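Revision sheet: structure tokens.
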Amino acid sequence: MASVVTEPNGRRLIQLSPGEDPGRRKVRLGKVSKKDAATACVHVEKLIGAKASGGAVDLATSEWVGGLPPFVRKRLEQLGLIEPQERRECPTLAEWLAGYIRGRADVKPNTRANYERTQASLIAFFGDAKRLDEITAGDAEDFRVYLRTKAKKGRSGKRTGLGKATWNRRLKRAKQFFAAAVKRKLIPESPFEDIKTRNVANRERDYFVTQAEAEAVLGACADVEWRLIFALCRYGGLRCPTEVLRLRWADIDWEQDRFVVHADKTAGADDGGIRVPPIFPELRPHLQDAFDAAEDGAEYVITRYRDTRANLRTQLRRIIKRAGLVPWPKTFANLRATRRTELEERFPGHVLDKWFGHSEAVARKHYLQITPEHYAKAVQNAVHDPVQNGAAGDTQGIATDAGGELVGAGATSASGWDCGDLRSDANACGAKTTQLLGRQEVARTPPRGVEPLSPG
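Predicted:
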């Protein structure tokens, strides 16, 4: 009459025999022990027998029914195995989401906006009258499919799925909303508990903004402040608009060529979201021009574009088109990623992490890119065998710093091997030396031919 089935995710259900209810034959129990599932199966069989005979169930089954969680009881009611019972008060999905978001006064505006986008997706799928305790694990899975296939309405009216990073983020928020409801004992368990999510780096929208493109955009800017906004992002690596608009003239240290950045995004970190990058040579003239044009007593570096209703992204896209270029996918984020990639060739990672206000892991996952110049260098700077090429001791074209260390393209070590381009903080390669490449330590050994390692 009924049997216990264990699903791949560890949840258990009672499967009714086809003759009992051909259309809807499952009673989901959630995560329960094998013993409890077997007990539930026995009671369900008694309920089926009582329904068929018109008799009453025993006291033990009545007590078991009285202690059922709402979602199991509702399923038995739907199958006609027990009489409907007025359930305790439970908020609708719309009521719960509105109250939860309203109560999160501790989150930043961008986080609140993300909450509201997920709220809109949930209500669009479930409706605003759906009670929290009516949403099942199957419904949560259907919502995941909806986000991936139909949650976005195009201009033509055709519905498509959200991007991978976006639908993962909305699922994470949905899990957060329902987990909070469980903590407040509004529902016994979250239907989203087993939905898998992950942080996705959307690298399909990467774009490296070259120096030539940057200069073209700067030439198309209408005034000093717009040139500075662009320069702060492209050459200073600032987030826009938050970090750009918070910059004050008091934050600029002209003597030491440094400036203080206040990052709202990382304000909860140990450093309070404060970092001190240098005033790079490409940035300084634009900063100086803005300073010379500033009114006496001006507090903020950017004054004309502080209206929060102004869409700087839209304005910059117009400027890019005016420069004769096609706007890149992530208008401001691509500028910050470009600068990090550019400086990665010149400075140690831990230094850039401090200047940009993110970790090495974040930089590698979301910022660093492969540029055409990397491929060009790989082709042009081949590693030569000193024995075959007779190049031992050849130091033509070597660039050195003030201390006499090898730097730049074409550097050759004392052993005569061509090291290719070296970062200014790198050691020249040579016999029995070791370099740290990323996180893997690689021992550099002299190149050899195809001779066996040992005689014979």
